[in-house]
Design a protein that fits this description.
The chain is α/β, with parallel strands linked by helices and 337 residues long. It is 36% helix and 13% strand. The strands form two sheets. The protein has a seven-stranded parallel β-sheet, with helices on both faces. Strands 2-1-3-4-5 form a five-stranded parallel β-sheet, sandwiched between helices.
Amino acid sequence: MPSAQPPRAVFAMDPVHLPLLFPPPLLDRLRRTAEIEPGLVVRDFGAPEAAEALAGAEVLITGWGCPRLDADALAAAPRLRTVLHAAGSVRSLVGEALWERGVTVSSAVTGNALPVAEYTLAMILLAGKDTFAQRERFRHTHTYPTPAETAPIGNLGRRIGVIGASRVGRRLLELLRSYDFEVLLHDPYVSVTEAAALGAELLPLDPLLSRSDIVSLHAPDIPETQRMLDRGRLALIRDGGVLINTSRGALIDHEALTDELLSGRLTAILDVTEPEPLPPTSPLYKLPNVFLTPHIAGSLGNELARLGAIVVDELERLAAGLPPAHEVRHADLARVA
């Protein structure tokens, strides 16, 4: 049943993100759906100016920079029943006390998956054309490569190994269907039949690494996946292979990866690292076979409005008495980001 009164909502995030997440048209929809003060953005649940707003809040609209929702935060918000997260993973945001109270949690993580998948696809296509090495070569020689030098280049029939049928992984698999790739997939929670439906051949991790020309990481950062690409597994990637990481740096043993890259055997496209950022002394900043970017694959700039739109949609569903379309369940956090 629809609520008789609009829910009372409060923003909790770093205020710098608010205008991009909720540009005027989305902010207008929020105001029509909930009682909310756009000028009040909570960053400290213990601050005196936040106390009154939190005391009456039924909905928290959270984002990057929101403090952790622990027992103390919940004590300040006794009426809270829904958290709508205008970002990706809620793993570092929600604590056990929130689940124990039965607060509903929804995340815009599906909206964040699209730009990561698009970025990854772009990197795959560029890597298949040997773009990064060719750029470096052209800068120094000012000459075109010979047919013999370009013989190994091209995307026709290239083998792409996708590790993780996560939200990003699945969006990437959808995008890859438009190209003449051979797609391999590793995910312990996916069946052979489901992988085939996703357009991929399901393989154990080690055979995927040894067969792929380009390996792309899309697994969650959980205890089972940390340093899943250790020294032994990195050695399985074929000479001249490419490793793309737009997931989490902790999935790779970075000392072992650095050794591989210093040898020149592999190329790495890294949007995330461990630690993040790398120290200024890291050799990866200067290696010609490393394309390093500052965690830009996810939603940035005008893409943030997509996340805000998901939150507004969820709030409208809540006001109409409908269940959330993007609910995060406690049990899911054991295997997803």
